[in-house]
Amino acid sequence: AKLDGRNTFKFFTPEMQAQSVRALQLENALRRALERNQFHLHYQPQMSLTNGSVRSVEALLRWQHPQLGAVSPAEFIPIAEDSGQILQIGEWVLRTALSQLKTWRTNGFPHLTMAVNLSAIQFRQPQLPELVSRMLAEFGLPPDSLELELTEGVAVDDPHAAVATMDQLHARGVRMSMDDFGTGYSSLSQLKRFQIFKLKIDQSFVRDLGDDGNDRAIVSAIIRMAQALGMRTTAEGVETEGQLAYLREQGCDEAQGYHFSMPLSAPELEAFMRRQLH
Ligand code: C2E
Ligand code: CA
Ligand code: CA
Ligand code: CA
């Protein structure tokens, strides 16, 4: 039993204990993951619904540990955030994704853009806009070739600071996407003040588009609102022809999901893009 601040006893169940042991194990293993080259990126295409081309690719972090195996980012990112390691890891992701983008842009895909997920912790670093600009310059990439994917969580603690950072990134020409849109707490009045290029409609609304009238209404409302605010829309988690047909009919700009492609290694994604060209 453990005594907490209010003099009450908290008991750990065996299950809770196993969870915290695992979290500690992962935190320790994460400390060595970068230097041991255990991270790599997969890339998932975001398809234009107007001309069927790959408009953008999203970089998704993968961690392969010799004993623990493949650990999901949904499990290790929160641990890296709590321990502060997300800053170094996030910088590695940004550099690796931009380096890959440079290679693709100079080898047949000159208009491709790269989407990179940012943790709220990275977003709150005052040096972030400077870091991003410096890295783009390092690779000779134009700022609008990068899309930073943020979640509504970035604005929870300090909406004013979030607006200021977005303004700075926007002034530098970098695009921002609101990830998992519709699942967080941001208000519409806040959204209006954000310099957001694109709303990514969360996969939880896309999943049941076939048979849930409410989800159809929500998705259609998000698309119309984005259009009114001058933002693009990308639907996430598109798995079926039926979902795609509805999204197209409603004027969604882009779609991403297993229907088109799973996240792929760089050579696999390049082969996918070459097939699209023919
Ligand atoms: P996310 O940014 O919302 O990424 C979308 C997730 O949905 C990815 O899971 C992707 O593999 C999965 N997905 C794509 N298409 C489909 C589909 O058609 N159906 C279904 N069911 N799922 C699909 P993944 O790669 O496991 O990543 C999970 C989350 O981890 C991401 O969610 C993101 O929040 C976080 N993440 C991944 N890479 C990074 C990173 O480099 N930095 C940060 N901060 N977070 C990352
Ligand atoms: Ca994302
Ligand atoms: Ca998402
Ligand atoms: Ca998500």
Automatic annotation (TrEMBL):
Transmembrane segments: none annotated. The lineage of its organism: Bacteria, Pseudomonadati, Pseudomonadota, Betaproteobacteria, Burkholderiales. This is EAL domain-containing protein. The chain holds residues 464 to 741 of 741 of the full protein. Residues 23-277 form the EAL domain. It comes from Acidovorax facilis.
